[in-house]
Amino acid sequence: MLLTGFGTLIGLLYLAMLVLAVIALFFAVTARDDAYRAADKQKKSFWLIILGITVAVNLFVPMLFLQLAGTVASIVFMVDVRPALKAVSGGGRRGGSSSDGPYGPYNGGR
Known about the structure:
With 110 residues, this protein is mostly helical.
């Protein structure tokens, strides 16, 4: 019974690593190519190759070391590259105008 529970936990961990890699790959594909250069990050093709290999390893190769390395790459993309791409693409504004500051609209001192 204990081994069954442990196997289920490991299976969920593998599934979580796969889902993270697929989401990171989706965001890498949908980002513009020039945003990578503007954010001073690696090329889009670099991230597509790394994250594509990560998804393939998680799907087809049951080697925990490679899966963990791919998960680290996915986490780096999600916490470092994606926010930088979002910042240079203008995706951080949520519908505000260009004069909005961090605490609301700037009214010019009126």
